[in-house]
Amino acid sequence: MQQTSPSTFYTDGSANDQHDGGAAEVITTSSADQPTLTETLQQRGRPLASSREEEKDAMLMPAEWIAQNSRQGGTIICADSQSLLKAT
Questions:
Q1: Is the CB of residue 36 less than 8 Å from the CB of residue 28?
Q2: CA distances to 16, 29, 46, 49, 73 from 34, in Å
Q3: How far apart are CA 45 and CA 58, in angstroms?
Q4: pLDDT per residue over 37-73, tens digit each?
């Protein structure tokens, strides 16, 4: 049985001073030292958004992708929002 490489999702979201924001994710497979780019997804944010809201939206993007693209193998989600990662 062939082992499938895990999908790694790198997520980020932000908003500027005018509260225009957005979220994105980059999806890779293979090892972290030699990743293979699979897909890049972006979504426009709300008209009045905060960076935390956009970071949260970015963290939801992998769940949506996984629900639409069933595949075997593990999943790793990487984010740079410490406050969001610590939220319960």
A1: yes
A2: 32, 9, 35, 35, 18
A3: 10
A4: 999 999 998 878 788 889 889 988 998 888 888 666 7
User: What is this structure's pTM?
Assistant: 0.78
Determine the Cα–Cα distance for residues 28 and 40; give it in Å rounded to an integer.
9
Compute and round to an integer the Cα radius of gyration of the chain: 14
Identify which of 22, 33, 87 has the alpha carbon closest to the alpha carbon of residue 55. 22
Which SS3 state, helix, strand or coil, does residue 83 take?
helix
The structure tokens 């890779």 sit at: 28
Query: In degrees, to the nearest 5, what angle opens at C-alpha 63 toward C-alphas 26 and 30?
Result: 45
User: Hey, what CATH class is 7-83 in?
Assistant: alpha beta
In terms of DSSP bridges, do strands 75-78 and 7-15 run parallel, antiparallel, or are they unpaired? parallel
